Amino acid sequence: MIVCAAVIGQANNPLYLETFQQGSSDDALRFHYIVHCSLDAVEEKLALPRKSPGEPSDAYLGLLYPTEDYKVFGYVTNTRVKFILVVDEPVPKDEEMRMIFKRFHAAYVDAVCNPFYSVNTPLTSSSFDASVRTIIMTL
Amino acid sequence: MELKSWIPERFTPVVMVVTTPEAEEMVQLNNGLTVVEMLRPHGVFHNLSVPVRTVGEQSYRIRELKLRLHYASSLFQPTPEAAEEYLQGVVKAATQGCESEPAPDIAACLRKGEPPGATPWFDTYQREFMRMLAFGELETFDHPVACLLVAHAGAEDPVQTFQALWAGAALPPLMRAGVMELRLLLHHLLLHDDSRHAEGGYQRAEEKLRVARAALGHAAVGLARVNSGSGDPASQVGYAADPGRWAAALAGAPRDGGAGELAARPAPPPGGLGARLTGANQEALAACLQDLAVRSLLPALEGRVRALNHQVTSTRRGLRNQLKTLLWRKASPAPGAQSGGRESPRPSSSGGSGSGAASVEGQMRALADLAFLMQDYETAASTLRLLAGDLRADKAWRQYAAAQEMLGLALVMLGAPPADAAAAFKEAFLRYSSAAAGPGRPGKDCVRLATRAALLTAAHARSHGNYGEANFALMKAHFPEEGLRAALLLEQAALCLLRVAPPALRKFAFHMVLAGLRYSSCGQSALGARAYRQVLGLYAGRQWAFIEEHLHSVLGARRKEAGDAAGALEHFAAMLVCPQSPRAWQATYLRQFLDTVAAAAAAQGESPVLDLPLPEVDAANVTVVCDDQVCHADGAARALPDEAWRRLEAPLLPGVEAGLPSWLDGGSSRSLAALPAACCVAGEALTVGVILTNPLALDLALSAVRLLYEHDCGEPDDAEAEEQTLSLAPGQRTTLQLVLRVRRAGALTLRGLEWTLNGHARGRRLFEPRRARGRRGRGLAKAPASGSLSFTVLAPAPCLQVALEALPGALLVGELAHARLVLTNAGPAPLRALRCTAAGPDLHLTPDVDGAAGRSATEVGAGLKGAGLGLGLLFSGGRAVYAWPPALELAPGARLEWPLWVHPRAAGALDVSLAFCYEPAQAAQEGMKYRLLRLRRVVDVAPALALTATLTPSVADLNQLLLRLDAEDLQGAGGLRMRQLSCTRPGWGVCSLQAAGSAPPAQETLKPGNSALQPAAPARASEALDAALGAGERAALFFRLHPPDAAAPRINGDAGAGGDAGGPPRLGLHHMYNVLPRGTEAVRAVAQSPARVLHDFGAHGACVAVLRLGLRSCLPERVTVTVSTGAGAETAAWRIREGGDAAAGAGAAPAPAASLDQAAGLRSGAEYVWVAATHTLLPDLAPGAAADVALQVAVFAPGMYEVGDYSIAWTRAGSGVAGGSCPGPSFLFSVEAV
Amino acid sequence: MPRQCSETCLELLALELVRAYGRQSRVPPAAAVDAIGFRTGRQLAERYTANRARLGEPLEVIKFVCKEFWMEVFRKQVDNLRTNHRGTFVLKDNTFRWLAKLSVDPAPPAGAAATRAVASVAELARDYLVLPCALVRGALAHLGVNAAVTAEAAVPPACEFTVTIKPR
Fold this sequence. Notes:
The complex is a heterotrimer.
Chain A: E1 2-8, E2 14-19, H1 25-47, E3 60-66, E4 71-76, E5 82-87, H2 94-112, H3 126-137
Antiparallel strand pairs in A: 1-2, 1-5, 3-4, 4-5
Helix pairs in contact in A: 2-3
Chain B: H1 3-10, E1 14-19, H2 21-31, H3 35-39, E2 44-45, E3 50-52, E4 60-62, E5 65-66, E6 68-71, H4 80-94, H5 106-112, H6 120-132, E7 144-152, H7 158-167, H8 173-176, E8 185-193, H9 201-216, E9 221-226, H10 243-249, H11 279-316, H12 322-330, H13 360-373, H14 377-393, H15 397-414, H16 418-436, H17 440-463, H18 467-478, H19 483-499, H20 505-521, H21 525-539, H22 545-561, H23 565-576, H24 583-604, E10 609-610, E11 616-617, E12 623-626, E13 630-632, H25 635-639, H26 642-649, E14 679-681, E15 685-693, E16 700-711, E17 719-721, E18 724-728, E19 733-742, E20 746-757, E21 761-766, E22 773-774, H27 783-786, E23 790-794, E24 800-805, E25 810-812, E26 815-825, E27 831-838, E28 843-845, H28 857-860, E29 861-865, E30 872-876, E31 879-883, E32 889-902, E33 908-920, E34 931-942, E35 945-953, E36 961-969, E37 976-983, E38 989-992, E39 1022-1029, E40 1034-1042, E41 1051-1059, E42 1067-1075, E43 1083-1088, E44 1092-1095, E45 1103-1113, E46 1119-1125, H29 1152-1156, E47 1168-1171, E48 1175-1181, E49 1186-1195, E50 1199-1203, E51 1206-1212, ...
Chain C: H1 7-23, H2 29-48, H3 58-74, E1 80-83, E2 88-93, H4 110-142, E3 147-152, E4 159-165
Helix pairs in contact in C: 1-2, 2-4
């Protein structure tokens, strides 16, 4: 199941980072580290040349890297906003992950298009938080 | 660690040393070295050239050789615990003061393209760690290949001594267990002590040597003389007395010895290490060892290698299957080697399957290692390959791993493709770690072995620039490890990440943090802190607040426990601004910060001043308000744009009259040009506005908030900065106004703000005036260009302060308010030449204080000099300037009161702004020729009452006009009372219609003779009345205007209104200009008919009534008027002659005709006949002249008559053309019969 | 089912926006409108690229703007895209929707009237092009292409947008 979901802004600044396991705050801290660290993996993946010039590259980056006890998955939008999900056993299938990311992205877009939200600032909208929770609860 | 250089010096033949106590004592006492330590430096041979031939046909030459000399008693592997403890010590020693040195700025290093290298202590640790793993049971390259017996040359019988020594030697455990090869090459060394002069001396020693050689073989015995030196450096001629060469020979040892070292070392003598060893001694020693190495050791090894090789090949030939091997194992012992020695005990196959020294695997391993030591890496590699294959076959994983590891090393030395070596190392690591899963000791050991393999992998990968590989290996290695080693491994892994392309900074940071965590958990908090400090810069300022917070808290805590409270403060301070964290945390952070401050204060005596982030000070945006040559009475005055003021002040300025540029050319070039851009006056207040914000969810208490400034004349009491205390609610943002007073002239610079947070944390923030705004347009507006908050403080000057007293906040339109100006000189110097000007005509300074002209100054104000207070009124620059007499001088503290009349004429906001100009009484000091004071008040003016006046010519009278005045109380407050109406046109008078008997409006009561107020403009006549207007009601008042005997009526009326709501009545004036009579006539005619005529119709049938018609010419020029009766009277219209003017007869016949149509019993107009002259000519009437015309009409019956059919025509004198005619007003009269 | 809003409302809004900011004097109107457009453009970019394969180099982004983005915002695609291959692109829309209803009262004199009228429509168009420019700029910026966008409507409603990519 998903233990942590994060949205990272264009400047690699955290816009949203929520942990979904009853844990202490240093737990949250650990996830901050993990997510921040995963950005390197994201950049590596983005730096990879495409298989063929014509063929479009997918927003879903797949497994970024495994830590001792988690797996970190990534997804990057056209606007260079990154979604990071930290998952622990059992790891869902790739297709599942892809779907989750898509819905996550949709929720994000709705939140961003709120006229009262100013771009590249932390997402404090409760409705966004709620929708994210519903998304990850489906797993 | 560079493998290619490390391997040849690590994997060298081991020589086991056994010494007699005498020899030891002799060496140790004098030199502080054990025998081994004394020998070690000489066990290294360069530039050899020894031909050897191992297995191959062709021989090769060994050029470098090193002997590892160890005491027999120390040839065992220390227990893991002891090793760990020792390693801890090693790291502690290696990392002395690593905390004090600044952590490298990683980002900067990378930008420069040189990532920080491996940490110094890691290399030492690595070597020591390897050393601690030496003499393991899985490999044989640490097994001794020779034994050096050292005895004192003074011994009676050297041969017997040596044999006793060998027999009694404490053999290493593995050797006793038979794992180590026991059949060793024996070599003997006699040490002759030069310091003790026994009989015979050296010759005797040589005797012994000869004896020993005879018995033990010539090559196997050596003699060296030691302690020839006297102990002072001078005696150590021949070799550079560098302690380094000895220090290199010393190695640390774990708690109870092992790993080749003894637990205890001798104490160093006063003379230093090796004090009494001369160059000659050392050469002797070196010679002996070289003998040992070249003459006996190498040949012996050659032999053994060949023998082993032969055995191995023979046993392996055709025996591929395990079974045979087993059979063989039970079979005969290995054939004896050529070297003499004790009976070797039957090898017990110990250390797991297939590792018996005598088993074929054991032999292969021995062969490989020996070949390795002999630098014949080919053989080693090939043998190891075979061995690995076999071990793999019978699943002896640990041995297999060891073999793989060794194979890797061999491949490295062979310069084989790196991939192979890497593969070998990895395989080793894999197998070790899988074996590590096994239970008990071996499991634990395997972890360490696995780590060793990983280290080799990493080192190898690094040396080939494959840092990703290295990082991977180290990471994997650190998982099973715990404590210090794990931390070190992590750190190394992290460092590798910096060298991969592109550098994985974030991963690096993460690893470092983990490493730091482990460090601190295993008591190496200095290293932990270092790790954290390195990465702090990578997280800072990237909005990863949580992480920053964590790092700061850890570092702060570390510094604090290290006793460096001040250092801790900067970390804790950095944590203070954390709007994202919950309130409770913020509170905790704040508390811990304050505690640390207290601690620091206690340490340093006084609490340090920090650049506190709390509260947030908007340093870029500081507003300064001060008065230089132009003073503002208050904010209201500043609100008015500078241009407006300059326009107002222009006429006041000296020099404007003198033709100097005035405000017309923008006021840019005022005589202020001499003054510096930003200046203030000594002794006057400088107000600085700073914006403070509290980002937290806590209340902040700020005390002793004050400005930091620099004033060039040093005395502290020259400037006083007021201190303020305030508390900021959560999220509150306020602008703080701080006042600074400088008492002496000079240069002043505002530096920043200082405050005390919650009682005892002193903080400061320096201003960064990016766009410091002076609120006064000019002055400071220039300052930001220089981007500084510096001012020139001018010498003290007089400073006028003006208060505007008794000015109501709200007025009614037309109200006349009497306010009081209070002028005071607040400055230290007297002032004179006081001038003032007011904006707008609604303000008026009376020329003298209620007729105070001529009164002595003291009566109107205090401290005035110069008599005669008459206020001079002069017009300049299009404005009225009120100038007090130049003689008048205001001493410091002097006070002058002056009345000010305010009379708003229009509703809205009345801008009461006054500008004062004055000059210092003394000769003007530089700059300040004069000063200006701007005073402004805004009074809102409410409309009071709406007045409309209508004038109609009176029907009854030729000259009078009727005035109808409609008043409406717009105020709604009620209580307005009309006091007086006066006509300002000379000669006209007003009187109420009452006198004429027409009914006055109900609500009005007339009080004659009430003269409330003399209007400003002189009026010949004025009507006093007293009409109260209720709230919002209308009133119509009627008046009659008496003309003087003069021209056409055009009057200016004005009415006074005043509310009498308690207190002294507020009075006001309303003016109405150019009230014109509605309609103008050329000639006014008034029928003055008799009311009734008595006639005796009996006597006479026709009654002739004489009708009097009053005429008055209203035209400006002389006219001729003709009254013609009957003519064309049927047509009541009038004719315009050609060129007739529109004014003629504009007003039709008077109204009454209509009203009387309904009158009962009215006879038709045909009942009468005009008699007498039908045309009456009145030749040229003077303008305004009146005339009387008598008309006669005859009637024949009594009754009510209206006679109207006659017309009045006129022509202007001179031109016969312009003129007109109109029907005259009809006569009404009744005829009664008698 | 995506949320829809009446196009008329949109057009009226655009008109009113220009008028409103033109009237108030505090902020320079162009700047204010530009800010609004930029922000909106970013948000739109966020939405319109949501279900789309990843865009790579600037050219792809520009193409996206010409096709999908234009379609979504201006209800048609750009008619013609030209570039000098050195970071300057010219997007030509022959009937730019937002200018379609723009006109000025024709001046009485017949001769010079035509040119002058058009010129002044172009004049007028300038104000109404601030918002579209800002929209495009915002979208590009949000997609990682920092560019300056200017628009010229010589003969409305035909309109040319010039995108100049800022060198890093």
